[in-house]
Amino acid sequence: MLESANTLGCMAPPLFEIEALEVRASDGPNILHGVDLTINSGEIHAVMGPNGSGKSTLATTLMGSPEYEIVSGHLRLHGDEIADWDADVRAKAGMFLAFQYPQEISGVSVRNFLRQAASARQAEEVSAIDIYVAMQEWMGRLDMDASFMDRYLNEGFSGGEKKRNEILQLAILQPELAILDETDSGLDIDALKVVAKGVREVQEERPEMGVLLITHYQRLLSELNPDHVHILFDGQIVESGGPELAERLEHEGYERFES
Fold first, then answer.
1. Is residue 188 helix, strand or coil?
2. How far apart are CA 241 and CA 224, in angstroms?
3. Where are the alpha helices (H) located in 94-242, listed in sequence order?
4. What does pTM read for this prediction?
5. Residues 105-156: pLDDT tens digits?
6. How many CB atoms lie within 10 A of CB 54?
7. Is the domain covering 14-100+170-257 a CATH 3.40.50.300 domain?
């Protein structure tokens, strides 16, 4: 019995925990109201909700955006409290955010950006050859022309190209936790399948990686088959379940959560 108790006492903490999270915009009212969510290694969680429910606020808060203030609650990565960590520290520790609207950075090529980001993530210099080889492989998988490697980051990219580029970054940086903020927004069905395939292949190579999908639509979930689905409504998680919850939402909408 003593050995069993010791074993239980040494169990590793969850990959990522959100506990009683209250968040507000700077000098504004609270947007998130007591959000609780636990992601274990290898799990895919989806957060769904209508416009204005707080989905993107949740995503950017998790990555340390200065636009939002944590009023109370906890964020833990591998058991470590990270609520006061800067965004770059969170990224180095293995958190990744694919933006709903990826930013353009003029004068910085995709290749140089990824080399610098990968070097920061690995805490050692990544060679130009290594980054080139890795990018060539993943760009082929994501149906990206090799010329994108030397284009300025997201400058002149179409919506679909920007989203592919976000998944390319995900593949190269190999995070512990991937937060995908409406990555399916604006994608046609073919581009959606390519992006979903990329996410699946990254997770196949890193089966311990956790994924938090934030989306309006069930169609991305059909491609990625999440373990858990959560409904965020008016800043609160009002219901959780399996993939069948997303299918119900597709038919019923959010009316039953309105009061």
1. coil
2. 16
3. 110-122, 128-141, 159-173, 189-205, 219-224
4. 0.89
5. 889 899 999 999 999 998 899 999 999 999 999 998 888 888 889 998 888 8
6. 22
7. yes
